[in-house]
Design a protein that fits this description.
heterodimer, A: six-stranded mixed β-sheet, five-stranded antiparallel β-sheet, B: seven-stranded mixed β-sheet, four-stranded antiparallel β-sheet
């Protein structure tokens, strides 16, 4: 039972364009969502988060949108840079999950120069 | 501010042995969570400790255990190692778990032969 799903295994984007990574969840108890960037054999790097009381959060080139009714969130990266090439994970938690993050399977983003 | 430190970075063990991994969280953080990452299963939650108490546990056998010390440093132990325990083990630190940002260490790559 995969409660957090990233249905696109990979995404290829041209440098300077927008990258949009998507994530769906099924557990309505989730109320806090995070995006991480990861390189092989390294730990995930925190990018941005959003609470369920918001529908948008912005930090520099990164914006996360949350659609609670659709149980869907997306990460927008504008403009995309070659250094953004990595695996991106979305993760979800709830107030009672006590440190447990439930992760999606990840999306490999490749930004071409 | 120092990040999350995991030691050792790499480990090779023989089937049947046991192993202990260490995690030092960000100063001031009281929640430490452990995850296992494998190619087939993605990032799976092992357990979470807060103020020396295990508050949450994932779906792993009893061979996987952990503890947290009064300075918030945490260790996880795997006994009677199996080949399938080969994975990247990651620890994450956050202020209080739940609805807060979690920061990951570089991970320990365990190989069981």
């Amino acid at each position: 039972d995969q409660q957090v799903k990233q249905n696109s295994p990979s995404l290829s984007v041209q440098e300077g364009r927008i990258s949009i990574l998507n994530c769906d969840y099924t557990n309505s108890m989730f109320d806090y969502f995070l995006w991480y960037k990861k390189y092989p054999a390294e730990g995930p790097t925190f990018l941005i988060s959003i609470s369920s009381i918001k529908d948008k959060n912005e930090d520099g080139r990164f914006t996360v949108f949350l659609n609670k009714s659709a149980k869907h969130l997306s990460l927008h990266i504008v403009p995309s840079q070659p250094g953004d090439s990595a695996v991106y994970f979305c993760a979800a938690s709830s107030g009672t999950s006590y440190g447990k993050l439930t992760f999606g399977q990840g999306t490999i983003l490749t930004v071409h120069p | 501010k120092a990040g999350v430190t995991q030691t050792p970075r790499y480990l090779i063990k023989t089937r049947g042995q046991q192993v202990t991994l260490s995690c030092s969280p960000i100063s001031g953080h009281r929640s430490v969570s452990w995850y296992q990452q494998t190619p087939g299963q993605g990032l799976q939650f092992l357990f979470e400790y807060f103020s020396e108490t295990q508050r949450n546990k994932g779906n792993f056998p009893g061979r996987f255990s952990g503890r947290q010390f009064s300075n918030s440093r945490s260790e996880m132990n795997v006994s009677t190692l199996e080949l399938g325990d080969s994975a990247l083990y990651l620890c994450a630190s956050s202020s209080f778990g739940g609805r807060s940002e979690a920061f990951f260490g570089q991970g320990t790559r365990l190989t069981v032969v």
